[in-house]
Amino acid sequence: MKFIAIKMLHGDGAKYLGLIFGVTFATLLMAQQVSIFIGLMARTASAIYDVSESDVWVMDPRVRYIEEVEPLRDVELTNVRSVPGVAWAVPFYKGLISIRMTDGLTQQVQLVGVDDVSMVGICPKMVMGDANVLRRPQAAMMDKNGFIFTWPDQPLALGKEIELNDHRLVVSAICKASQTFLTFPLLYVSYETAMEITPPQRNKMSFVLVKAQPGISAADLATRIHDTTGLQALTNNDFAWRSIRYILQRTGIPINFGITIFLGVIIGAAITAQTFYIFVIENLKQFAAMKAIGVTNAQLLRMVLLQTVIVAATGYGLGIGMTALFFQATKDLPATAGFILHWQVMGGVLIAISAISLFSILFSLRKVFKLDPAIVFRG
Amino acid sequence: MTIAIDISHLNKSFPVGDDVVPVLHDISAQVRLGELTMLVGPSGCGKTTLISILSGILSASSGDVSVIGKSILKFSDREKVLFRRENIGFIFQQYNLLPALTAAENAALPLLAAGVAKKQALQKAVDVLSEIGMQAHTEKLPRQLSGGQQQRIAIARALVHNPRLIVCDEPTAALDAKTGQGVMEILRDVANDQTRAVLVVTHDSRIYRFADRILEMSDGRIVGDHLPDNFVHKE
Ligand SMILES: Nc1ncnc2c1ncn2[C@@H]1O[C@H](COP(=O)(O)OP(=O)(O)OP(=O)(O)O)[C@@H](O)[C@H]1O
Ligand SMILES: [Mg+2]
């Protein structure tokens, strides 16, 4: 009876496509939106993980996520350095600031100031030029996507001049950084330069980056720094999760994505359920004839389930394939760079699609089970 | 045993709204093996209702029906399905073929439902189709065939599992006279087998001559039991 179920399904081309479309659409919407959401969260963390040399981030207790900065007093650097178990500790500047290009246009950038000696916190991968150039005053390094964003349609080149609070800077190196949550260009300078060119303020140090001595765990050191200095000290992982939790709890992002995903599920389920229902209703006479001839309800159940599995598997495969193609096609766009389709997402969507499919045949199956075969004798 | 169907004091009524509308009144009759029995009568007199009950598709309100020695009214729904699958072949006015299946696949359906392997089932279906002149069309879809050819597929489907009873509701109503005659000749042949009974509901007086016996119904009752010659004469 299996091949009969398959032939019945394929026999009605338009409805078969409609069914597949419903499942594909729901799969695509769910997989894509969930992946983008996860990608955004990962971006939040990537600014933290890009700083790989240090073990602990030290910051003001009020800081809730990486893009929010409460300056520390300079003396805190010395305080942190004096905590037992600290191998080294360096200052790190991070802040939003406006730059002016030679044509007079302005542009927001994320200014990053790294310790001149150790270069801890520098952009991990060079594209053009040398990071050591930052030790020169007036030298700056921009990330590649930021460069493209700032000077669209221009080839990557060193020597671009920019102005920052009346200080002249030259883009003397280009690097490749992970996309961050804020999509503004990243502008790297030395910590000294950052102190000089940013507006005068009593305190300017954003973070202290700390390395633990061998044999001391990052978590232990973080606790110790907190106990000694009263500052907030977090391991890379803890800081990443704190940032992600903040975004989840305090922004509209999860709700927006939640709504899109919810709508995807509802619309996908509605299309699938309705098409399935119409499929069964229009084939009611065929089901009745089979029942009259002696096909049992159990056999009909197996047939409908097989049809469902075929539709769900095909639609799911197409939807996942389209999602993968989407991320492949957009992997070089700054807005979507770094977004990938995780297997966990694929698994989750598979479960959701199975649930949708089973739900959508419930009504149809009821109809088939209750169907009175006597209708075969009626015109 | 020569009795295929034994009906005694059968009543059937349908609930319509809050009322109960009686359709069959105290019917008692017999259908014999080796005969082609016709059931005739005006539209709405209850012919379809009666054969639906006799073939275990519809339940009765009261009375007793024995088909091939089995009291089918006492069966559970599942027992009825299995009984139909094994013992009854159906031919409908509207053919009721599955449009996505070929002629052979359609004809093989009762065997497939009974769990016969696909290959054997299809082979048997092709054999039966060949016996009724359809050997050239076994791989065609119903929509590629004429009404008469589609009804032959339905006949093959009704015969493929060698049922004891073949039940037909207006098998020639959708066919022209000549094609209808062809269909009746096949059924006539089947009824010559002493282990089988064919029961045909019809309006079509042109085919009365194929009957061994004609049961006349009116208003939910059996009002006559005729030999075809007399009946044609009477009309
Ligand atoms: N499911 C039902 N519910 C209510 N009334 C029904 C039902 N099925 C049949 N009837 C009624 O029972 C009566 C007999 O119907 P049936 O279909 O058996 O007649 P018939 O002799 O086959 O007619 P025809 O020659 O037009 O096919 C009709 O009055 C019909 O309206
Ligand atoms: Mg009728």
What does the model show?
- The complex is a heterodimer of chains A (379) and B (235).
- With 379 residues, chain A is an alpha+beta fold.
- Chain A folds into two domains: 2-44 and 252-377, no CATH class; 73-230, no CATH class.
- In chain A, 52% of the residues lie in helices and 18% in strands.
- Chain A has eleven helices and ten strands.
- Chain A has helices at 2-11, 13-49, 75-81, 144-150, 191-197, 218-229, 236-250, 253-282, 284-293, 297-329, 343-370; strands spanning 56-59, 86-101, 106-114, 125-128, 139-143, 160-164, 167-176, 186-190, 207-212, 232-235.
- A six-stranded mixed barrel of chain A has the order 2-3-8-5-7-6.
- In chain A, a hairpin with a 2-residue loop joins strand 6 (160-164) and strand 7.
- The two termini of chain A are 26 Å apart.
- Chain B has helices spanning 47-54, 77-87, 103-113, 118-131, 147-159, 177-191, 228-234; strands spanning 3-16, 19-32, 36-40, 62-67, 70-71, 88-91, 165-169, 197-201, 213-218, 221-226.
- Chain B has a single domain (3-230), classed as Rossmann fold.
- In chain B, helix 3 crosses helix 4.
- Chain B is globular, with a radius of gyration of 18 Å.
- By secondary structure, chain B is an alpha/beta fold.
- Chain B has a six-stranded mixed β-sheet with strand order 6-7-8-3-9-10.
- The chains are: A alpha+beta (379), B alpha/beta (235).
- The complex binds adenosine-5'-triphosphate (ATP) and magnesium ion (MG).
- Adenosine-5'-triphosphate (ATP) binds at residues 14, 16, 21, 23, 43-49 of chain B.
- The site of magnesium ion has 3 residues of chain B, from helix 1.
